């Protein structure tokens, strides 16, 4: 499967789509073109039955993503003020109604708007050289949307505020990100992509309806009262399980991380 893209690389193999941010000369900062191309990628992932899971990663040695590319100009400000929209709102998979699991593999710098990707990833793993920071405050800019997404992922309030308010002066290490729950695993840099790919293939081998129903039920539970979340969860269970037998053998497996 090929897509006409200039800022991203896109491949599909064994039911796993691999999406690579491909602006290493700009530290994989996103511009208007990349935002539009992610719209194409996420709609393709959503609507292609052969794709069961996604790995999101980045080219180059220095950065996963450093947020919006300021040199390309604030294109979203070309609209009248009350018609302006969040420039990164459509970068994440969940904003595009993608309920197929996304595994993000982070190396190097993950700054500011990189959290648009990570806040809507299902699983985030990092290499041991990854660092996380927010340059907004250093530039005298309000930092709101990215930290709000971190709160919704369960990152503690004090740590989110410290991340947002210290700007470039403090960087979270991969180990700290693991402790805060921003990532679920830290691996050596040379093992990052292989680890993400293996995890995606494991999930992609499961029954797609069961996977997507699980992902959707859990994410939607973040936005509604518990009683409604349970009702939706039951509905998705009934819809997604169909005639599947409820009695399955669950093997005992030793955890492979932490």
What does this structure look like?
With 258 residues, the protein is of the alpha/beta class. The protein is built from eight helices and ten strands. A six-stranded mixed sheet has the order 1-2-3-5-7-10, sandwiched between helices. Helix 1 links the parallel strand 2 and strand 3. Helix 3 packs antiparallel against helix 4 and helix 7 packs antiparallel against helix 8. The two termini are 36 Å apart.
SSE blueprint:
Blueprint: E1 8-13, E2 16-21, H1 32-47, E3 53-58, E4 63-65, E5 102-106, E6 109-111, H2 114-119, E7 123-127, E8 131-133, H3 145-152, H4 157-165, E9 172-173, H5 174-180, E10 185-187, H6 192-204, H7 208-220, H8 226-241
Parallel strand pairs: 2-3, 3-5, 4-6, 5-7, 6-8, 7-10
Antiparallel strand pairs: 1-2, 8-9
Helix pairs in contact: 3-4, 7-8
